[in-house]
C-alpha cells in the first residue's frame, strides 16, 4: 500500500527535523552559534488522470486531475545568520562583531576558516589566537610588557607600554563578508569554510564599506530562541505521531483485506 511508504518518508523527515531542533537547543549557550532550520519538499507525483486532459471529442478537458504524491524529502538545513545579542564579559580579548563580517582564522594545515566567535586568548608568544589555539588573520602579537590593550570599533589593536603616555598600534583585525552566508560549511568549533555556494570572501576593515564594528569586552550569543524551538519541537513531534498513525491505519486496512481473502 502506497500510504505506508508515504507516511514513512514523513516520519523520517520529522525525525531529521527533531534532530536539527535538538542541536539548536543544545547550542543555546554556544558563542555566536547560528540556528539551523530544516526545509522540505514534496516528492514526485503519479498522475493517474492528468489535469487538462481531453475527456471528449468535443474538446472537454479535465478541470482537476488525480495526482498521488509519494511523500516528502529534506532539501536542506540552512543556517539562519541573524545577529545574536551581545553579552558583556569585561575580558580584554573578548571581541564581538556587531553587524556583518567574520573573523579570519588560520587552521593547522594553513587553510583559512571563518568564525563569529571572538573569545580570543594569547599564546606563549603573545599572539592572539582562538580558544583552540588557531591564529587569527592577519597575525597580531602583543608585547610582553604591555600594561593595557584596547581593541577599538575599527579593529585597531592598541597597547600601552611602560613609560609611555600614548597607545601604540600593534595590529589591525580584518573581517570577511560573503554574498551568501548561509552557503558556508560548518565544520564544528564555531568555524566555517568557504564553499562555491557562499562565494569568495570580501575582506575589509570593521566599520567601513558595510562591515560591522567590533565591541571589546563582549561576546555574541547564539541566536536560538528557546520558545520558538520548543514550539517547533512540539509541532515536529505531533507530525511524527500523525505519520505513525497513518502507518497503523494502513496496516489495519491491509489486515482487513487479508482477512477477506481467507
UniProtKB/TrEMBL annotation:
Residues 96-158 form the Flagellar hook protein FlgE/F/G-like D1 domain. Residues 215-260 form the Flagellar basal-body/hook protein C-terminal domain. It holds the Pfam family Flg_bbr_C. One of its GO terms (biological process) is bacterial-type flagellum-dependent swarming motility. NCBIfam families: FlgEFG_subfam (TIGR03506), flgG_G_neg (TIGR02488). Belongs to the flagella basal body rod proteins family. This is Flagellar basal-body rod protein FlgG. It comes from Undibacter mobilis.
Amino acid at each position: 500500500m502506497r500510504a505506508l511508504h508515504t507516511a514513512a518518508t514523513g516520519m523520517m523527515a520529522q525525525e531529521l527535523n527533531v534532530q536539527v531542533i535538538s542541536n539548536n537547543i543544545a547550542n543555546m549557550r554556544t558563542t555566536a552559534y547560528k540556528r539551523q532550520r530544516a526545509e522540505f519538499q514534496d516528492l514526485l507525483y503519479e498522475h493517474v488522470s492528468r489535469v487538462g486532459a481531453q475527456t471528449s471529442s468535443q474538446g472537454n478537458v479535465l478541470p482537476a486531475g488525480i495526482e498521488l504524491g509519494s511523500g516528502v524529502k529534506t532539501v536542506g538545513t540552512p543556517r539562519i545568520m541573524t545577529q545574536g545579542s551581545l553579552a558583556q564579559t569585561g575580558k580584554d580579548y573578548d571581541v564581538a562583531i556587531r553587524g556583518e563580517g567574520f573573523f579570519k582564522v588560520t587552521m593547522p594545515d594553513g587553510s583559512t576558516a571563518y568564525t563569529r566567535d571572538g573569545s580570543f586568548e594569547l599564546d606563549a608568544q603573545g599572539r592572539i589566537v582562538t580558544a583552540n589555539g588557531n591564529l587569527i588573520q592577519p597575525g597580531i602579537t602583543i608585547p610582553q610588557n604591555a600594561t593595557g590593550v584596547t581593541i577599538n570599533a575599527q579593529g585597531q589593536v592598541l597597547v600601552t607600554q611602560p613609560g609611555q603616555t600614548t597607545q601604540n598600534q600593534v595590529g589591525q583585525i580584518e573581517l570577511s563578508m560573503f554574498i551568501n552566508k548561509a552557503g558556508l560549511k560548518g565544520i564544528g568549533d564555531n568555524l566555517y569554510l568557504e564553499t562555491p555556494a557562499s562565494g569568495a570572501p570580501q575582506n575589509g576593515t570593521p566599520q567601513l564599506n558595510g562591515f560591522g564594528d567590533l565591541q571589546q569586552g563582549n561576546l555574541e550569543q547564539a541566536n536560538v530562541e528557546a520558545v520558538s524551538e520548543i514550539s517547533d519541537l512540539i509541532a515536529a513531534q505531533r507530525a511524527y505521531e500523525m505519520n505513525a498513525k497513518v502507518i497503523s491505519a494502513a496496516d489495519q486496512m491491509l489486515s482487513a483485506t487479508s482477512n477477506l481473502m481467507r
